[in-house]
Amino acid sequence: RSVYDDQPNAHQRFMEKLDACIRNHDREIEKMCNFHHQGFVDAITELLKVRADAEKLKVQVTDTNRRLQDAGKEVIAQTEEIIRCRVQQRNIATVVEKLQLCLPVLEMYSKLKEQMKVKRYYSALKTMEQLENLYLPRVSQYRFCQIMIENLPKLREEIKEISMSDLKDFLESIRKHSDRIGETAMKQAQQQKTFSTTLQKQNNANYGRNMHLGRNRMLESKNEITLKRTFEEDDEHEEEVLTAQDLVDFSPVYRCLHIYSVLGDGEIFENYYRKQRRKQARLVLQPQSSMHETVEGYRRYFSQIVGFFVVEDHILHVTQGLVTRTYTDELWNMALSKIIAVLRTHSSYCSDPDLVLELKNLIVVFADTLQGYGFPVNRLFDLLFEIRDQYNETLLKKWSGLFRDIFEADNYSPIPVANEEEYRIVISKFPFQDPELDKQSFPKKLPMSQSVPQIYIQVKEFIYASLKFSESLHRSSTEIDDMLRKSTNLLLTRTLSSCLQNLIKKPHIGLTELVQIIINTTHLEQACKYLEDFISNITNISQVTVHTARLYGLSTFKDARHAAEGEIYTKLNQKIDEFIQIADYDWTMSESDGRASGYLMDLINFLRSTFQVFTHLPGKVAQTACMSACQHLSMSLMQMLLDSELKQISMGAIQQFNLDVIQCELFASSEPVPGFQGDTLQLAFIDLRQVRHWLLVF
Q1: In the chain, at which end, N or C, are there fewer CB atoms within 10 A of the end residue's CB?
Q2: Which residues belong to any copy of the Exocyst complex component EXOC6/Sec15 N-terminal domain (predicted)?
Q3: How far is Cα 607 from Cα 628, in angstroms, rounded to an integer?
Q4: CB-based burial of residue 177 (10 Å sphere; 0-12 exposed, 13-18 middle, 19+ buried)?
Q5: Where do the structural domains in the chain lie, given as residue ranges?
Q6: pLDDT at position 693, please?
Q7: What's domain 583-697's superfamily in CATH?
């Protein structure tokens, strides 16, 4: 800056001073070169001297190098071979190491494929789990592992679909075969009940061993033989008949449950299973429209239901959580309500008591079977009491027809017995006792007609039929006794009473038949106490028990007798009216015939013969009938005289009418029915006598 900023010509002076400085440095360099030049010359001279030696050395080194290279070629080749081998060895070791990691994966995958092939799906899922968690992460860098990883979810879905398909096949199979399962379970329940009954009888037979030791040794041996045979028969039966659970292969359910549980979809599977089983329950509970026509329809219905709940009970006890007790109880309560509704509806169509009895037996076996599996069945036994009333109604209808047939076939004549054997046959059927009749010689007649022992036998048959329904209802002897007495009372007070009332009202039943009906009802009434004894012997309940009901036969047969008596009075009066209608009085006749009118004599003869039939009736009944007939005859004759159309009457007609009245009084005084006191019967004609006297005086 000073050069350019200073005075003019400063640059020139600077250049001059710079040239002077350069010349000074050149002189110094020249001095130094002159100083070192000798050394340089000496060095060059030394180099020239060693030049020849260097060339010799170079030749020797080159030759040595050549010879060394020739000698090292083989070593190099061996070394390279060694290097290559060591590289291969290292690669092999690496491959072995990697294969050792891959082989378990491949083996597990192969095992997985084999398990899928033999349908061991649960094991296959476990193998997949091991592959994913243990083996595949070690070799995840390989492409085949990626393929495996991609295939595993597909295999899981395939396993789920296959297991679900097997489950659907299982559900369809048990739906089709539930009746066979239920039938087997019901048979086993019956066998168990029979076996328990045999054991109970065995214990009862051994109870009196201390009292009759000698005799009970034989009983004991017989009972042991019987029990042994029972065991042997049961063993043979067990060998022949599988249990209800053995008839079903539950492996599809277990397999599907395990598979879905492993896959984390256990809840989905449980919901699906329960939903499908509810649908099947609704189908099982739906009866056929013609179920009530045959017992097989009911048996198949019950078998299907039992089979359904046997399967559910087995699933409940062998699986954890698939079904719960709450679920089965809810399903059973729903089913029970439906069953009761169905049975109420269909049993109401049953008019055959035998079919109703078969239905009752099926319900008992059905209830006992399901009770053995832990299901509450009290409502079924309550239903049986409703069906029992219906059963009694069907019995009453059936016995009503039997009673009608017996009454239609009866000849309403005393039973003739020619010898002792015939007599014993009759009294073996009917409890008849008459010491006076026993003293008579054969042949003789029993007072009742043939319908009496037949009715008595049919009442006993009714009691037996009613007892059949009361069996196996888990009721006490007192309750059964009460049931039998109530049903028998219904038979007597409603059915038999109705049949008797209808019989009495039939137009073809005459006075003789009515008299026999009164006699018959008297003997039937006396037999009621024997019916009570019969029921007590069946139920082992003494009649002195406070709550024991009594039979109402007394009132039933009394009502029938009263109706028959009233019908006798009515028919007698009707017959009298028929005779009166044929009376043909000539009220203008000049003189009488000198004897009673023909119609009146015929009427009196009819009454006399009729009252002779009344000898077997209670005295009061015969007396009442006789008094009623005489009063009606008196009133009828009185109405003839008081007829408004009668304008005049001659003395001859009065005398003829007087003869008829005298004949009536003679009939009354002849005591056609014994037992009247004094002139009681003649008082029936007292008004007519006064009118007659007044006419004669007039």
Answers
A1: N
A2: 17-186
A3: 12
A4: middle
A5: 153-196+245-375, 393-565, 583-697
A6: 61
A7: Dsl1p vesicle tethering complex, Tip20p subunit, domain D (1.20.58.670)
Tell me the per-residue pLDDT of 494-549, one tens digit each, with 9 for 90 and over: 888 889 889 888 888 888 888 888 888 888 888 888 888 888 888 887 766 544 55
Q: Is the pTM above the cut of 0.85?
A: no
Distance CA 313, CA 181 (A): 13
Domain 393-565, classified CATH 1.10.357.30, yes or no: yes
pLDDT, residue 223, reads 42
Amino acid at 562: H
List, for residues 312-367, the tens digit of each pLDDT value: 888 888 887 788 888 889 999 999 999 889 888 888 888 888 888 888 888 888 88
- Kindly report, residue by residue over 425-465, the tens digit of the pLDDT: 988 888 888 888 888 888 888 888 999 999 999 999 999 98
Closest alpha carbon to 685 in 645, 646, 627, 643 = 627
Are the C-beta atoms of residues 684 and 627 closer than 8 Å to each other? yes
The two three-digit tokens of residue 534, written as one number = 């019969």
| C-alpha of 280 from chain center | 16
Residue 219 exposure: Cα atoms within 13 Å on the Cβ side: 16
Residues 24-30 have a mean pLDDT of: 90
Determine the topology of domain 153-196+245-375 in CATH.
Answer: 5 helical Cullin repeat like (1.20.1310)
What string of DSSP letters covers 412-477? -SPEEE-SHHHHHHHHHHS----HHHHHSPSSEEESS-THHHHHHHHHHHHHHHHHHHHTTS---H
Nearest to 618 by CA among 574, 543, 561: 561
pLDDT, tens digit, for every residue of 91-109? 999 989 888 888 888 888 8
Alpha helices in 348-419 (DSSP H): 353-372, 378-409
DSSP letters for 470-494 = HTTS---HHHHHHHHHHHHHHIIII
Average pLDDT over every residue of 619-626 = 77
Give the three-class secondary structure for 1.
Answer: coil
Question: How far, in Å, CA of 366 to CA of 363, rounded?
Answer: 5
Axis-axis angle for helices 266-285, 143-207 (nearest 10) = 50
